[in-house]
Each structure stands twice: as C-alpha cells, then as structure tokens.
Design goal:
The complex is a heterodimer. Chain A is of the alpha/beta class. Chain A has helices at residues 6-20, 44-48, 60-73, 91-97, 101-104, 135-139, 152-164, 177-180, 214-227, 245-255, 270-282, 305-308, 312-323; strands spanning 2-5, 24-28, 53-55, 76-80, 114-120, 145-147, 169-174, 182-185, 198-201, 206-210, 232-236, 239-241, 258-265, 291-295. A seven-stranded mixed sheet of chain A has the order 3-2-4-5-7-6-12, sandwiched between helices. In chain A, strands 9-11-10-13-14 form a five-stranded mixed sheet, with helices on both faces. In chain A, strand 6 (145-147), helix 7 and strand 7 form a beta-alpha-beta unit. In chain A, helix 10 (245-255) crosses helix 11. Chain B is an alpha/beta fold. Chain B starts with 45 loop residues before the first helix and ends with a helix. The chains are: A alpha/beta, B alpha/beta. Chain A: InterPro entries: THDP-binding (IPR029061), Transketo_C/PFOR_II (IPR009014), Transketolase-like_Pyr-bd (IPR005475), Transketolase_C (IPR033248). Chain A: GO terms for molecular function: branched-chain 2-oxo acid dehydrogenase activity. Chain A: Its cofactor is thiamine diphosphate.
C-alpha cells in the first residue's frame, strides 16, 4: 500500500493495464509525451512507446470513432476526452456506434475493449465548459456502462475493471478530487466490481445515494446530521449504468427514507431514475418522499459556483426535511 | 513540433484558389470492351475475372428481384447497388480476402464477391432466426465476421474513422492487412470523414478510403454537395495519396485499388480513391428519383453500364459468351427466388434476442424486463403471434455457450 492521489492511482491503473496486456493503447488530446492536461497519462509513452500511447488531433468524434474501430479489431482502446464537457462532438459515435456494436451485429462484432475516460464535474472554478456532469445522457443508452469513482483506491480498481470489462465503459473522473483526494492504494493489480454499489457507512434513519465527488458532500452532511441524532446510511453507486437497484432498495427497506444527490441539473438527472425505481420497489416502506439534491436547472456558472453546487449544507437541510416530514 | 513543410516566403498578398489541384480520371477500358490506346490491362486471370463478373451479375440479379419483392410487399425496404458494381467489386477483388471491409450500405456486391451465400443475404433481409443480426436491423444491414465484413450501421460516415482505428489495430497486431472503407460523396461531407482522414494520416493507418462518387445523396446532386472538384482534392490537405478513377471501369478500379493496397500495407500510409460513377437506381426503395433528375440523364449513364463494359471485355478475350450469360442469369434468378421463399418461411428470432447482446451478460434490469414481457405475452398470446407459442424456447441464461463465443474481445475480462 502506498499513499496516492487520484491522478496517481489512475496513472497506475493505466500503467498496470498496459504492462499486463500489449493490446492496451491509450490516446487522446495531449495524452502522449505531455501526459495529458491533468497528467493522468504521465510516463506511459516513455514506457510503452509512441505507438501505444499517443496524441491525437483535436477531434473528439475522430478519437471515439478511431477507438471504436480499434476495439472492434480486438485491441483494447483507452481513449481520453480532455473534459467531459467536450464529449458531445463524439456523442453519435458513442450512443449510436459504441453502445450498439454488439447488439446490431448479433454479437458478430463488439467494442467491449473500449474505455472512454473523461474528467467531469465542478468545484475547480472551471466555469461553463469545464464543470459539467453529463452522466445522465449516457445512462439513457443501453449497451454502455458508466462508471464514476470516489477516491484513489476506487479509481484504480474500477478503472482496471473497466478496461478489462467485456462491454464498453465511459469512465468519468471527478477532477476536483484529482489532487485533493488521497489515500492508500495497493500497488498490486486489483479490480473492483462494476454494476455494484457500495455501502460506505451504515445507518438507520435515511439512505443517502451519491457518486464521484458528491460522495464527500454526502459524508459531510451525514456528519452534521449525526450531531443532530440522525443516522445516515451512505451508498456510493459507483456504476451509473447498469446501476445497482438492489443494494439501494435493501437500504431503503431498512431506513425508510432516500435522498439522492448529484452535481448535474435536476430535470432529467439520474436521481429521477433512482427515485422512480425505488418508489416502485419500496413504496410501502417509505416514510417520506424521495428527495433530490442536485445542481440547478441552469448551465454551470463560473462566479457563483458555490451557490450552484449541491453542497453538504443543502444535503443536510434536505436530510432534516425528509426525517421531519 | 517541427514540420516538414516548406516555408517559401512571398511579399505580395497572392491567394491560391486550388485550381492547380484538378485531378484527372484514370481509365483503362472503353465501353465497347476494348482498352484505350496506350492503356494496359492489369494482370487478371480468367478464373479471377469470372469470379468478379459473377459477383457483379449476381448483384444486378439480386437487386432486380429484391426490388420487385419490395414492390410486392414481401420486403419492407431495399437498396440497390445498380450502376456501381464495378466500383465495388473491382475494389474488393483487389484486396486479400482477409482484409477488413467497412461498408456504408450500398456495397452488397463486395459481400457477393467474398462469397456471402444467397441464404445469408435472404436471412438478413427477412430478419429470420438465421439472420446473423438477429432481426435487429432493417434489410440490407449485412455483416459477416467470417468474411471480414463489418456489420452495416445506418448513421452515415461513422464507419470512416472506425476504419482508421481498425487499420491501426491491424498494424499493431503485425498483420499484413489493410481496411477498406466505402462511403458516398454525401457521407464525405460529415465531420467523421474529415476526422478519419486526419487521424489516419497522422497515425499511419493502413486504410483505403474508397469514395463512391455516384452523383447523388438521396436527392441532393453532387454539385450541391460540394463546391470543389469532387472529394479527391481534400486528400492533399491531409497529405494523403489520392487517385480518381472511372468507377464504371472494372479494370481501372481493380488496378488502382491493387496499387493502393500495396502502398498502404507496405508503408502504413492511407490512400484515398474517388470512383466516379452513377447511382442508376433510386437511393432506396422509398425514394423516387423522377422527382429530382431526368430520364435523359439516367439514360446517358445507362449507356456506361459497368456490367456490360466488363462483359464485352470478357467476350473479347473469349472468356465469356451469350449462352453462358443467359444460362447463368437464369440460374441466379431462380436461386434468388427459391431462396427468398425459403427464407420467408423461417420463423423470426426468439424473444430472448430482444435482450441478448445489449451487454456481454444480461443485466438484472434486462432479466426482469424479459420475465415481465414473457408474463404479459402469456396473458395476451394472440396479440404477439411471433413469440407467443415459442416462449418456452427462450431464456436469458448467462451460461449459454454463445455468450462465450464473441469473435473478438470477449476475453477482455477473462484474459
């Protein structure tokens, strides 16, 4: 075990995957010698050569189109989109091609070897186009897996699992935590399961569901609630698609209350999907309406970022409202 | 980064307009079946020449019969290759059979050349239980892993950057192969085309970009598609080799593609081929070209029929005759009709095919929706006649052997 920040953990995962299998290739804008704008791919080109870790032209649809072809050939493609905000030029390649490759060919061809990495989320004074959380767009598309880690240990294990999963994965990295979050990370090659949520704190009064950087907010809110005698159970969803409804439902059976929080806007956000599914499974167990604490239905701002963000205080207030309903 | 570009300096604001990039058309064979003066036919033995011709003729027969079947209401949709057979077969024939083909949708002639059987064509078009695509896509969305022909996808031009990636993978795997990607001049307007050419040259992918410039993108004529001299000059901007070829001239297409293949495999540098041809048929069975072009224009192109041109060449070499032509056409027609009848009678894929292949393994949500749907169909069997009496044949068992069977990356997790 060694102390690592999230970027180092991600770098280690890529290094491990490339060392273990020569079919793994990492590419994207500035990913080569420079190591990516956040340095997630540092030293990989040096170690594995320019043919396996390289810069691409500035063309997101080209990066993902190329990656689709590479993965369909049998290579393992790890493509970086420099910011999740810039994934939309590649939207067609992802939702019409990546997601449907296996289905439309009757399993003659697939792009299971594809992982798309992209830094996402706010809290870095990134303003409009360096802060968005686009997971819900992709969660609407069968055939994709969408994974978001919460800390360095999770990032390494989930990324290794994503790279080796037989389905294409979009891996959103909470960039606010890239250097802010650090912790013990095994040096070994390990994987954490996709499609499984993790209960990170047990509690009895309300279930809080979050993912990525928002997990920290949920934890802080739970600490505040604890001081007021409210016991929160916290679940890190980890995989947004396909998501682990069973673990969330099990928890809600116990606590009788559910709060979901994410940075993305409220309307059409993934919290809505969770709320609908859980009320279907747990209707008679619910003590209060399912609560959503999310970003606003506005584009992401620069100056008033703190006001926009669903922070621990907003979550804390929602917890109290739910418990005192 | 340093560049290898020359940095000539001028002191006058002198603009270039690109006219110096006008590209000539490579032609070998005249419509009467003789070679142009000074033109030399590529090496093509009788066996290969006839394999090519049979594929062209079969495609014409298939197109005629299937369009008729569509008009009779037996088939929901069809797209013809008519007029472009030489462009497609000529290029495919210049490849190794294990080179990858990524087609747009109008290149059934390539599959016919590679040996896709009449049964395989029909099973796809009727979406029956033997369709490799499991009845999930419209007719003509063929695919064959065995024949190295990527399953067709409807969104236009998406296969072009994919071809660059596929070819890069072939190079990295040390294969002496290439990928050939077909697209029309309309698809070449999409961003994917430009992304692909740039990615391919920068990353030295052994890919042949093959543009079938057939004059129309549904109803939009090429003159409204681009202001420049066709698609070919774009290659210069990406530092890519390019050739413009008469797409109705089988020998010229074959020769050009043969040389392109040699270049891309040896030097790992892509080539663009623009084949000038004409879509003699409608865009699809849902389209009526009389609304946007004249019969006179079509007739002029009918006189450049690529199949007739090839046949005259074969006859001039005494490799083919009127009698052989008639008898083969008749056999092919009968084969297509008989096979169509057989394929139409086969049952559709079972209910589980709705849910499999979304992911490598069915998810809990998919399993739940499958069970729900089965229960519903059991309640109203008469409303779902394709599935009702076969519910017991279907399951979403994760351990089914075909789930282990995926052609390429299935081992990603298990490796």
């Amino acid at each position: 075990m060694a102390k690592r920040n999230m970027l180092q953990a991600i770098n280690e995962a890529l290094d491990t995957a490339m060392a273990a299998d020569e079919k793994v290739m990492c590419f994207g804008e500035d990913v080569g010698g420079f190591g990516g704008v956040f340095r997630a791919t540092s030293n990989l080109q040096e170690k594995f050569g320019k043919a396996r870790c390289f810069n691409t032209p500035l063309v997101e649809q080209g990066i993902v189109g190329f990656a689709n072809g590479l993965a369909s050939q049998g290579s393992i493609a790890v493509a970086e989109i420099q910011f999740a905000d810039y994934i939309f030029p590649a939207f067609d390649q992802i939702v019409n091609e990546t997601a449907k490759f296996r289905y439309r060919s009757g399993n003659l061809f697939n792009v299971g070897g594809l992982t798309i990495r992209a830094p996402y989320g706010g809290g870095i004074s990134g303003g409009h186009y360096h802060s968005q959380s686009p997971e819900a767009y992709f969660a609407h598309t069968p055939g994709l897996k969408v994974v978001i880690p919460r800390n360095p240990h999770q990032a390494k294990g989930l990324l290794l699992a994503s790279i080796r999963d037989p389905d294409p994965v979009i891996f959103f990295e909470p960039k606010r935590l890239y250097r802010a979050s650090s912790g013990e990370v095994p040096e070994s090659d390990y994987e954490l399961p996709l499609g499984e949520a993790e209960v990170t704190r047990e509690g009895s009064d309300i279930t809080l569901v979050a993912w990525g950087a928002q997990m920290e907010m949920a934890e802080k809110a739970a600490d505040l609630a604890d001081k007021e005698g409210i016991s929160c159970e916290i679940i890190d969803l980890r995989t947004i698609l396909p998501w682990d409804a069973e673990t969330v439902a099990e928890s809600v059976f116990k606590t009788g209350r559910l709060l979901v929080t994410h940075e993305a806007p409220l309307t059409g956000g993934f919290a809505g999907e969770i709320a609908a599914t859980i009320q279907e499974h747990c209707f008679l167990y619910l003590e209060s309406p399912i609560s959503r604490v999310t970003g606003l239905d506005t584009p992401f701002p620069l100056t008033l970022e703190k006001e926009y963000m669903p922070d621990h205080l907003k979550i804390f207030e929602a917890i109290k409202a739910s418990v005192n309903f | 980064m340093t560049t290898k570009q020359r940095q000539d300096v001028i002191h006058e604001a002198k603009f270039m307009d690109g006219d110096e990039f006008h590209i000539a058309v490579f032609k070998l064979l005249q419509q009467d079946g003789t070679l142009y003066d000074g033109a030399k036919a590529p090496k093509l033995d009788k066996e290969k020449a006839l394999r090519i011709y049979r594929a062209m003729l079969f495609t014409r027969v298939l197109d005629e019969r299937m369009l008729a079947a569509q008009r009779q209401g037996r088939l929901s949709f069809y797209m013809q290759c008519t007029g472009e057979e030489a462009a497609v077969v000529g290029s495919t024939a210049a490849l190794d059979d294990d080179d990858m083909i990524m087609a747009q949708y109008r290149e059934q002639a390539a599959l016919a050349y590679r040996g896709f059987s009449v049964d395989e064509f029909m099973n796809q078009m009727f979406g029956n239980e033997k369709d490799y695509g499991k009845g999930r896509q419209m007719p003509i969305h063929y695919g064959s892993a065995k024949l190295n022909y990527m399953t067709i996808s409807s969104p236009l031009a998406t296969q072009i950057p994919q071809a660059a990636g596929y070819a890069y993978g072939q190079k990295m795997a040390g294969q002496e192969n290439c990928t050939l990607v077909y697209f029309g001049e309309g698809a070449a307007s999409e961003g994917d085309f430009h992304a692909a050419l740039n990615m391919a040259t920068v990353h030295h992918a052994p890919v042949i970009f093959f543009c079938r410039n057939n004059g129309y993108a549904i109803s939009t004529p090429a003159v409204e598609q681009f202001a420049a001299d066709g698609v070919a000059p774009r290659a210069f901007g990406y530092k890519m080799r390019v050739i413009r070829v008469d797409g109705n001239d089988l020998l010229a297409v074959y020769q050009a593609t043969l040389e392109a293949r040699h270049h891309v495999v040896k030097h790992h540098h892509p080539v663009l081929i623009e084949a000038m041809t004409y879509r003699l048929a409608a865009h699809s069975s849902s389209d009526d070209p009389s609304g946007y072009r004249s019969k006179k224009e079509e007739e002029a192109w009918r006189e450049k029929d690529p199949i007739l041109r090839m046949r005259r060449w074969l006859e001039s070499k005494k490799w083919w005759s009127e009698e052989e032509e008639k008898s083969l056409q008749e056999d092919m027609r009968k084969d297509v009709l008989d096979t169509m009848k057989r394929a139409q009678k086969l049952p559709p894929p079972t209910l589980d095919s709705l849910f499999t292949d979304v992911y490598a393994r069915p998810t809990p949500a998919l399993k739940a929706q499958f069970e729900q749907l089965k229960a519903h169909i059991r309640k109203y069997p008469e409303a779902y006649p394709k599935s009702a009496d076969r519910l017991d044949d279907t399951s979403l068992d994760d351990t089914r052997p075909e789930l282990e069977d995926s052609t390429n990356i299935a081992a990603k997790g298990e490796a």
